[in-house]
Amino acid sequence: MKGNDQDEVKAGNAGGNVGRRSFLKGALAVGAVATGGFALNMAVPGLAEAAKRPLPKKWDETIDVVVIGSGFAGWSAAAQAAIGGAKAVVIEKMPTYGGNSIINGGVYASYDDKFHYRQKMGLGDDSPELHMQDTLKGGDFFSIPALAKVLAEGATDGLNWMIDDGGAVIRPTVVRAGGHSAYRTHAAGIGKVYVDALKRIAEKNGAQIRLNTAVTWIWRADADPKSPVLGVEVKSGRKISNIKVGKGLILASGGFSRDVKMRGDHYPFLSGENWNCTNHPGATGEMIRFAQSVGADTLQMNYIQLYPYADPETGILDTPALIPFNGPGNGIVYVTKQGKRFISELARRDHVSFAQIGLGPQGKPTYTIFGDDMVEKMGFTKGEIEAGLKKGRLVVGNTIAEVAQKAGLPQDALVETIDKHNKYLAEGKDPEFNKPITKAMLPMTKGPFYAVAQWPAIHHTMGGLRINEHAQVIDIFGEVIPKLYAAGEVTGGVHGTNRLGSNAIPDCVVFGRVAGRNAAKG
Ligand code: ADP
Description:
The chain has 14 helices and 22 strands.
């Protein structure tokens, strides 16, 4: 396609001319943009049939703002839409609310918080500008800067909203995590703390949820830029019904890490069932496909993140799996099975994951070593450590040699590694991996010490639907699709090649709020 504003585009494989206005009218095909035209890929099984679906003759009900998904993004959107005076209903296909958000690690990047913990703890400076710059750099400058800016600037207000209006309780600390140049990551133990806070705000303002209800189609008459989305088809048990949206449809349906086909189509290295995955089973990409079928653009679908520190056996991101993420700014050390460091502990997630994968299958697992005096500073409680020990996820020893022996690591090598690292902290320089040393990093001189095993598991899909800074979904021609909004992991372009850890929750909360606020305006 040449230029941006043709009235007519050439249909590639389908042959003949297809008017822009009618592009999706009779043939709601996924528009694969090919050089010189649109390939109306009618060969995809099921697509042609789906494309012919007539609009519903009657609507079963009308709701002002329909929100798909009950994670951070969905509840934020529903809350804000309800505050804006709209009747808001959250549609959730699973039997329980919360999606990936409720099992997320609860880490939230924000340059400040209402208690000003960073300032009180003397952990250096930060700003929304620095947060944005770290986000761009951490994603190799593939993020859309205007979107990264919205995230960084809205993060603190979003956090304080959940604390003040939703009763979220955060831990009294701030940590520095991989890829961040400041201490800005706030901890709550688990994502449920924020999900429940957002749900409380949403419900006290009148929003409702329908569980066990899957969206099975999005209705739009045609792809004329003035043509809004009309509603959704939903399936609950055997019952299929159609909901008309009065003011707006907000897609907050999460990522597609559990969609084995979709993830393999975009990133063949991660194809197949053999990868561990941190996600809940509902993290599939059908809403992205439905949005594409009404003209939505996608971007960066091939950027899929591995979480480097998951439970090596199950792939679960449990509390012990959070310690290696939260701890770098407090002096934890990553080691191989040979008891040697292999990367800067402040490296970003993709670098740590691929350093581990580079060790080969015989290198699995690697370990994080940490000291008891770091536990609360990293945002954990003694009770959480006890639970990790009981579960067998952590081992403890009074000396480094004892931890090594319990974890099955060579004792001399681990003692030498930790001694060397202690010296680097004292000298303020890491000649091996060039880790920036800070005063908050504690040497491991006095036990007890702990070890936790870790290995990469598929975690987050950075790509998804193209949105603008108002959370409006953009079509394949670069136009806003009226009444269609998206927020959270279902969107693409906020994080680039690699999402910085603890940027997911502010992404969802900030864009969810933007979407809800705008949708309520109608
Ligand atoms: P985010 O972190 O972006 O808020 P989550 O994964 O936490 O995303 O939540 C997304 C929710 O959307 C999940 O609970 C998931 O089950 C739900 N969802 C995904 N697809 C559909 C669908 N087709 N119909 C209804 N709910 C859906």
